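I'm stuck. Protein, please.
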Amino acid sequence: EIQVLRDEFKLLQDRIQKFRELELSGFFETQNRLNAVESVNDFREKIGLLKAKIDVKAGKIIDDPRINQIGYVYLESSMDFELEALDDLEIYTFMKMVESRFSGKTLLDSFEVERIADVTPTNLATIADGSPTSMVKGKISYKWITLPEESSLSE
């Protein structure tokens, strides 16, 4: 019986740790579109993307009795990104930053990368001159999910 109690205590501590990680990730906060735009601009500058446009649709509350019962709501928004870069690696890096640094949880809906310019002597000369030259573009769609307190949505 003591071993059962130890196992249950260990499980409880693991769940508390996971809950704290979710809290720190912003999972229980409301979605802030202005912060999302600022984050995307920050990601663009850090990565060196030539263009990063975000479109965040208004959040929808998905009915879930288990979540509603404890005073929270399941909030889901669609986010669409249009990106342009010199290299596709910059687009993949952007995706990694969205998935790891956005508050809450992001679920990839669709992803498309397309080469929009060929490597030609003219394009290489333009790149060598330091002129921004888009070689690839990406379109990415995510679902953005958070579980804010119901009372925080009316504030």
